[in-house]
């Protein structure tokens, strides 16, 4: 992928020493327009990033993941189809503020992240990450979650409630609720895998408003009876 002009990688030593020259300048240097910048975090093969870019030519999309071997497929497809509004960044999500300036990102997509039922601070909708997102988004910046996990959906609903963050869309069964028309018509292979197993798709869209302090919800949540990524059944307490 080092030869792909739409892929950006920064060794941590370089990032520490020099920072990212694109921070605050993605529109100017990468996309060469003033359109909104939207991220997909944990983009995997980049199917959703490419799909979003295809149906929204007036917006800019950046797929972010640490695993380059998976990201290669989406980057190659975007490059071959001359999708100038799609780019990829290989880095850890925890480093987002090093790559994006305050208010530079208008929306964030989280598509089928690991629910991290045992480790709250690794959940991509935990207050730890919400704080990171708010640092690079405007006050009305949106976060969209699609998940097969009832655990993650319930946890996120409770997190939004305790922090009084506005919910724009919420459903625990996207395709039976009639709300599918409100979401992009993109169904990745991973999403289809869960549908084929008889699971419902849960969705949330909410405003990532800034708070002086984010509070974790103090609730007991029933864990999923299966583990994402085909890791079998588990038995844990929240």
General description of the model:
With 238 residues, the protein is of the alpha/beta class. The protein is 31% helix and 17% strand. The protein is built from 9 helices and 8 strands. The protein has helices at 12-18, 26-31, 47-55, 68-80, 96-99, 127-136, 150-162, 174-177, 189-196, and strands at residues 7-9, 37-41, 60-65, 86-90, 107-111, 142-147, 167-171, 202-207. An 8-stranded mixed beta sheet has the order 1-4-3-2-5-6-8-7, sandwiched between helices. Helix 3 (47-55) links the parallel strand 2 (37-41) and strand 3. The protein is globular and about 45 Å long. The termini are far apart. Residues 229-238 have low confidence and may be disordered.
Question: Key terms for this structure?
Answer:
alpha/beta; eight-stranded mixed beta sheet; 9 helices; globular
Q: Low-confidence runs (pLDDT<50, min 5 residues)? A: 229-238
Number of helices: 9
Silhouette: globular
- Order of neighbouring strands in the sheet with most strands: 1-4-3-2-5-6-8-7
| End-to-end gap | 39 Å
Radius of gyration: 17 Å
Q: Kindly state the number of beta strands.
A: 8
User: Could you spell the SSE succession in H and E letters?
Assistant: EHHEHEHEHEHEHEHHE
Mean pLDDT: 93
> What structural class do the secondary elements suggest?
alpha/beta
| Proportion in β-strands | 15-25%
